[in-house]
Amino acid sequence: MYKKRELTVVELYESMKTPLRLELLAGEKGLYRKVKVAELNRPGLALAGYTDYFANRRIQVLGKAEITFLNSLDLTTLKQRLLTIFGSRIPCILVARRFTPPAELIKMGNELGVPILRSPFVTMRIMNKITMFLDNWFAPFLSLHGSLLEVSGVGVLITGKSGIGKSESSLALISRGHRIIADDIVRIHVEDGITLVGTRSEITTHHLELRGLGILDVQSLFGVGCIRDRKRIDLNIYLEEWDPNREYDRLGMAETKTVILGIEIPYNVIPVKPGRDLALLVEAAALNQRLRWMGRNPAKELNDRLIQAMQRK
């Protein structure tokens, strides 16, 4: 089931505090207001008195034009215009370029519990950074039962029924120098509308569950170099029990795809039976995917050579 995360102003503040050098000017008691949409708004028209289509659900950004206009108003008009803005349940206000907002703005922010944040950066840079953050935060996400590893630079999502050998394969790959992002629960979301990114659950971070051994802390066993916090998902490998009645792909002429959160990624089914080195097969699949990125298709190349040989005869 697809889900969307909720966002509070304090989470926005803590996340963007360093990259945008944010400071809290007023409205601390309103930090737990919710941000419900990914868009921002410059409230120039609303400050000028036209509020018919005021986007009150958006974060409000005050740049040079808005601050200059507010400073030009007499106190009575200023209070009236600000009350219109503050009274519409906006989540927060962002002030650009370290401008000093009118004292009445700070006063209302504290009285009505509307956080007012300030950054030294220009308005467009703030809006671009915040918009990217909001797009990623509000992107749909899901949690899958599986393992996510970086194998030779390729983000490999290993899925399959419980007990099929996902964690055992992960352990073998870690021992060969590859890195793990998540085991058991993989959190997946879409970035920039085109890229699947996987992260781990904070509860099971750096741990593997292996039947017969229990819980292993892979960071302690193999060192910090064996883990990553997040990774783009490039390939999905599905492990299933070997079915002698099923015809498995033996050539790989066509690239099979699967869809996760509306994004297509390459998909391989690997049958499992005693004696098969699953870690080696996953490594080979990852390296083969890198070849495809380079425009190479070994199955097609072999097929072309066979056709040429038959034509010569």
Secondary-structure blueprint:
Elements: E1 7-8, H1 9-16, E2 23-26, E3 34-35, E4 40-41, H2 44-47, E5 59-62, H3 64-71, H4 75-86, E6 93-95, H5 103-112, E7 116-118, H6 123-138, E8 141-151, E9 154-160, H7 166-175, E10 179-191, E11 195-200, E12 207-210, E13 214-217, H8 218-222, E14 230-232, E15 235-241, E16 257-260, E17 263-272, H9 278-293, H10 298-312
Helix pairs in contact: 4-5, 7-9
Describe the structure.
The protein is 33% helix and 28% strand. The model has no long low-confidence stretch (mean pLDDT 90). It has 313 residues and is α/β, with parallel strands linked by helices. The protein is built from 10 helices and 17 strands. It has helices at 9-16, 44-47, 64-71, 75-86, 103-112, 123-138, 166-175, 218-222, 278-293, 298-312; strands at 7-8, 23-26, 34-35, 40-41, 59-62, 93-95, 116-118, 141-151, 154-160, 179-191, 195-200, 207-210, 214-217, 230-232, 235-241, 257-260, 263-272. The protein has an 8-stranded mixed β-sheet.
